[in-house]
Amino acid sequence: MPLLISLFIFQVQNLLQQMQSRFQTMSESIISKIDEMGNRIEELEQSVNELKSEMGMEGSPSPSAPPKVKIDPKSTDDSA
């Protein structure tokens, strides 16, 4: 009976080590992808600033979404 318990403990420890190794690999991959995305964003920002500079728009604010119209539910309520 103690042999079965020892074998079970060994298998559980082995499984936990494999899971930890996979988790570490995934974590490193995610961090690498985040760093890569950050670098690409910085490159895009630099390209946009260069284009703005070429067009003489250095001081211009960046384009933004048009303002959203807020609908007041009280004004559209016909029951009043």
UniProtKB/TrEMBL annotation:
A Gene Ontology CC term for this entry?
Answer: nucleus
Q: Name one GO biological process term.
A: cellular heat acclimation
Q: Where is this region: Disordered?
A: 52-80
Q: According to its UniProt record, what is one Pfam family this protein matches?
A: HSBP1
UniProt xrefs under InterPro entries: HS1-bd
The question of whether Thylakoid is a record keyword is answered with no
- Which GO-annotated molecular functions does the record name? transcription corepressor activity
Keyword tRNA-binding part of the UniProt annotation: no
Q: Quote the biased-composition stretches of kind Basic and acidic residues, using this chain's numbering.
A: 69-80
This protein's UniProt keywords: Stress response
Concerning its family, UniProt says: Belongs to the HSBP1 family.
List the protein's name.
Answer: Heat shock factor-binding protein 1
To which species is this protein native?
Quillaja saponaria
